[in-house]
Recover the amino acids of this structure.
């Protein structure tokens, strides 16, 4: 959650209030507009408060046209009704809301089966507020397992975590918050994510684990999890170091099981200790809900688990947050029931078809070079062709925003900071018709952009609010 500053000036801007927002007498109770940065002295009618807030929100972008976000922006009305009915249920209060707790338990079991846990009945897991919390929990488990194995050296020895430089920022936060050294595998040439051999070379006796990404946020590509595990198997044979793998499947863990069934990335690999995903991404649920699962109880140290009374029994819990609504967990269970495996396969295939079709059409324009084609995650990244000098991706992103499209432009991290790209995320609800409209808008802009003498955006850091 971003930090927000208070008002920068001592004076307060007053909201302009339409008299029609008042009661039957349009002037009644509307002598003075409410302040914006302190509590008003008096209450106001609920309809007035609702309209004031709604007017402010009119200037937000249209979520359905936001192609920067992986987060679900459309659900069926029935799911919305269920969420409204459950928004007052506190997910942590499992004794008071036992059926909500049971639905969470069922979702964990379904994911354990989907991700090929050796014994789904022995897999352990929990819901979270999103993948960021799930990653924190997985990282904590990795660190605690390492500290137990190295009790004679810790805290003198500093633990480290190996991952690609393309990881989502939550992993950098984990390393900072829990005092773990982040060892980053850089990008090289046209390789935009982790290299298995390079990752193994960074491991030592202080490595708590290696993170593999099933679906990089930079370009939508899968990291080679099986090759990573093989490289770590070879490392163990050479050195005796036994390094576990966590799979950050924030997006891909809800795509690959349905569209890439032959891809081995999950608990079928003995070295994979834990997996996380975002229910509110390709799990097709409104934010925020995530899931963290461990292969078995041994992978999650018992001392990290808290226990609460549940129907006179024992309910283990593992979370950073305490109180949070049960609505998203209920919506996740609804979505699992509603779609089943075949339904998920159809939805994710439709998203991939939109992504690959749109990528091909953009490539055919001749002005762009594709980095990815949407054939892994339904996501693709592209940059301007080498001979395009009149404009760059930041110009195009700015011009598309004028039509309401939010398509992020950004530079890649260290070793490829020379590369600036646009990325398009195709989600359920971003239809082939919408993709056609976006492509038409892009085509309409090209003649004007080609006539520019040079790219117009000088400050790239200010050109986009998008950050990994």
């Amino acid at each position: 959650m971003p930090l927000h500053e208070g008002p920068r000036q001592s004076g307060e801007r007053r909201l302009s209030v339409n008299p029609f927002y008042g009661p039957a007498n349009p002037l009644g109770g509307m002598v003075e507009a409410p302040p914006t940065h302190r509590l008003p002295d008096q209450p106001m009618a609920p309809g007035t408060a609702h309209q004031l807030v709604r007017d402010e929100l009119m200037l937000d972008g249209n979520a359905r046209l936001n192609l920067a976000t992986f987060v679900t922006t459309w659900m069926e009305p029935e799911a919305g009704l269920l969420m409204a009915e459950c928004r007052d249920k506190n997910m942590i209060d499992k004794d008071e809301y036992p059926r909500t707790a049971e639905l969470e338990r069922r979702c964990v079991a379904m994911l354990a089966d989907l991700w090929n846990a050796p014994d789904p009945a022995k897999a352990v897991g929990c819901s979270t507020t999103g993948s960021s919390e799930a990653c924190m929990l997985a990282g904590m488990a990795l660190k605690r397992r390492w500290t137990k194995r190295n009790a004679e050296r810790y805290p003198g020895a500093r633990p480290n975590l190996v991952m690609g430089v393309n990881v989502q920022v939550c992993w950098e936060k984990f390393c900072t918050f829990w005092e773990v050294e982040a060892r980053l595998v850089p990008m090289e040439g046209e390789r935009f994510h982790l290299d298995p051999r390079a990752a193994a070379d960074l491991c030592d006796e202080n490595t708590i684990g290696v993170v593999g990404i099933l679906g990089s946020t930079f370009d939508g590509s899968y990291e080679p999890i099986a090759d990573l595990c093989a490289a770590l198997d070879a490392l163990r044979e050479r050195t005796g170091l036994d390094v576990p793998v966590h799979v950050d499947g924030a997006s891909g863990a809800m795509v690959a099981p349905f569209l890439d069934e032959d891809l081995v990335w999950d608990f079928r690999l003995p070295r994979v200790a834990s997996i996380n995903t975002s229910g509110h991404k390709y799990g097709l649920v409104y934010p925020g809900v995530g899931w963290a699962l461990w292969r078995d109880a041994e992978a999650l140290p018992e001392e990290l688990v808290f226990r609460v009374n549940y129907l006179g029994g024992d309910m283990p819990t593992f979370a950073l947050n305490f109180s949070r609504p049960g609505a998203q967990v209920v919506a996740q269970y609804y979505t699992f029931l509603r779609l089943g495996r075949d339904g998920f396969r159809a939805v994710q295939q439709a998203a991939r078809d939109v992504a690959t079709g749109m990528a091909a059409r953009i490539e055919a324009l001749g002005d762009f070079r594709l980095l990815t084609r949407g054939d892994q995650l339904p996501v693709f990244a592209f940059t301007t062709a080498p001979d395009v000098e009149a404009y760059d991706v930041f110009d195009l992103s700015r011009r598309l925003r004028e039509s309401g499209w939010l398509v992020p432009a950004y530079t890649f991290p260290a070793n490829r900071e020379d590369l600036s790209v646009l990325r398009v995320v195709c989600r359920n609800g971003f239809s082939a018709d919408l993709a056609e409209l976006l492509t038409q808008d892009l085509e309409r802009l090209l003649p004007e952009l080609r006539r520019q003498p040079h790219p117009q955006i000088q400050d790239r850091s200010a050109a986009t609010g998008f950050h990994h």
The mean pLDDT is 90. The first helix runs from residue 46 to 57. The chain has twelve helices and 13 strands.
